[in-house]
Amino acid sequence: MVSWIAVAALSLQVRAGAEVVAVVFPPWWNDQQVLLAAASANAAIVRMTALPTLLVVRPDDNDGLTRLRKAGAWLTLDPQAIAACVTQ
Question: Which residue, 72, 81, 69, is CA-closest to 18?
Answer without folding.
Answer: 81
